[in-house]
Amino acid sequence: xxxxxxxxxxxxxxxxxxxxxxxxxxxxxxxxxxxxxxxxxxxxxxxxxxxxxxxxxxxxxxxxxxxxxxxxxxxxxxxxxxxxxxxxxxxxxxxxxxxxxxxxxxxxxxxxxxxxxxxxxxxxxxxxxxxxxxxxxxxxxxxxxxxxxxxxxxxxxxxxxxxxxxxxxxxxxxxxxxxxxxxxxxxxxxxxxxxxxxxxxxxxxxxxxxxxxxxxxxxxxxxxxxxxxxxxxxxxxxxxxxxxxxxxxxxxxxxxxxxxxxxxxxxxxxxxxxxxxxxxxxxxxxxxxxxxxxxxxxxxxxxxxxxxxxxxxxxxxxxxxxxxxxxxxxxxxxxxxxxxxxxxxxxxxxxxxxxxxxxxxxxxxxxxxxxxxxxxxxxxxxxxxxxxxxxxxxxxxxxxxxxxxxxxxxxxxxxxxxxxxxxxxxxxxxxxxxxxxxxxxxxxxxxxxxxxxxxxxxxxxxxxxxxxxxxxxxxxxxxxxxxxxxxxxxxxxxxxxxxxxxxxxxxxxxxxxxxxxxxxxxxxxxxxxxxxxxxxxxxxxxxxxxxxxxxxxxxxxxxxxxxxxxxxxxxxxxxxxxxxxxxxxxxxxxxxxxxxxxxxxxxxxxxxxxxxxxxxxxxxxxxxxxxxxxxxxxxxxxxxxxxxxxxxxxxxxxxxxxxxxxxxxxxxxxxxxxxxxxxxxxxxxxxxxxxxxxxxxxxxxxxxxxxxxxxxxxxxxxxxxxxxxxxxxxxxxxxxxxxxxxxxxxxxxxxxxxxxxxxxxxxxxxxxxxxxxxxxxxxxxxxxxxxxxxxxxxxxxxxxxxxxxxxxxxxxxxxxxxxxxxxxxxxxxxxxxxxxxxxxxxx
Length: 843
Hints:
- Helices cover about 50% and strands about 15% of the residues.
- It has an eight-stranded mixed beta sheet, with helices on both faces.
């Protein structure tokens, strides 16, 4: 955008405006051309689309089909359970996405304000949405800025741009200054929508509204549909794979049984039942239990989970992007030193900093509020002003002279003018010689590069109490007393926090709007290792993108500190890191972070952040600490590991069982398992599955992200399924050798199928030899109960309802022996699974 460097006459001409503002006719013309000053455009039927989206997942469609089938076959219990699970998950998913949609509408509330505008040569108060390019807007202290405005007049104007740039310090604006770049931080002759006036007065011409403003571009980024998280993408792939396998197995089973001359309806029912057997209908409930328990644990550690399905991605985070302010620093300015001109601590400098202070509650009338004075006063509330008698006169902080002044009486019958402001101004107006001035300025510059904000203090005593000075430009021979050095201090224990991330194999990248020099100094002070000691600025990144996207991506992924970046660049950085296959967590609390928060796999905001940032985030932390986030990641990894235990064991066991039933039908003269028996097996093994979320997780499974590789997952599901099928055929051979009864055969196979699936879960839940990793108590109990229940069914009258007969004890013994051999084989063969899928050595 060239408006910040263009001649004002050119801007007037472009928008057909003038210093007196637009007339009514031209306003109407500009309105038609540029539209209304509204950021958010509501989409019709958005709510219905969100609701429909909850049922578009292939796995959900399968479960809907299974629900219908269950009611048709009068299996009302299974039908009702699955229906309730679908309803709960649809409601939860809808409510979370609906809340995200509402977060963007809060931005509209932010700009629904009234502004002073010159129309037809008169000052009028109008709604911000009625402002158009070419309007002349007047701004004063406390006003929100309704659009991007090029200044044409200003006086002592300072703007709080924290919501846009992320930096808490007010920024001086002056219509006489020229811009040094195209980023908000580089533009001194313009003010921007969504910021507000800290001090002073200004008038300017509107050059951009709505989506064309800096804020608007951030909102457009945030308004984009939130990308699916890494785990959700994998879950979609898994759902699609299940969907097509269900179609295949149902069709294959039906064709085989019909071709063997069996009843068409029975064959069809068996095929549908097999699809139920392999569909993990309890997965939504298991995930909900696991995620809810984890969320409850983290809430006790000041970390609130807004969107439960982000947990697995939280555990798989391997890169965290964060601003410097508030993460490795405290996020507030604090006085660090009160130096005299010899750079020694001096109580007089502290005393005068409090005397010449616009936030002094001992003064009846406040002169002006500003961040620095508030920081100084709040840090020394109990400090007693030495011999301070009264305040006589003062001038407000002036951005032209960059000073403020107060006339004070210290009890010596002389008025003393105390001046506070930019150190270079006070040095230049002091009575020091040139050599001393140069020496002091060099030392102060070094402190500035260390991240300090420096304020000078000087005095001038009156003669006959007749000082009549309006600003520092009238002062000659000022006595320089010293300097107040403030800093957004580095947080304590940062090495501990860095170590906690390092142990989890998480890389930290700092992305800030502050200067590269200060950013480098702060990073060095907290012990953050800067790759190649190189800090990339927003300008550097812009040049890289212009030359080569590949180079940009390489730099962003290799280096870890970026300064003076724009909201768009934050988003681009996150996209580039995700594009390289990383799972990204982004910490942000301002409007400038909205896009990056939404595009990240896990958006993290703080309780003190702006509303729209908190609403766009997946997680809210009540205490901004990397250690808190590390604890969240650890909990997320536990959830992910237990989720994968469930998915893998249930799919591999179900795959083997379903394949066996399908192909055993070829050489058996009867259906190997009745539909109701498939449902009984499924229900009993689900008891164990419900306890997986409580299971203990081995330390070696938590030390790094464990991304879900669908290729390896499918490979091992088939691998274990085939092994299970081989043992099933061994069982078939043994049982058919001792009996020709279809009822007894089905009874024994049902018992064997349940037992082997229970044992498979115990084996696969750990990379260690099973006795070196003890399951949780609940997991242990819930692994035993299903086997006891199936024996109770078999040996009681309940068995007749499920087509079972009472087996001879020795036959149950045979089943236990075969299942035991299967378990031992699993223990030996799981080595390759854990080394390939988890990257963990068998112990």
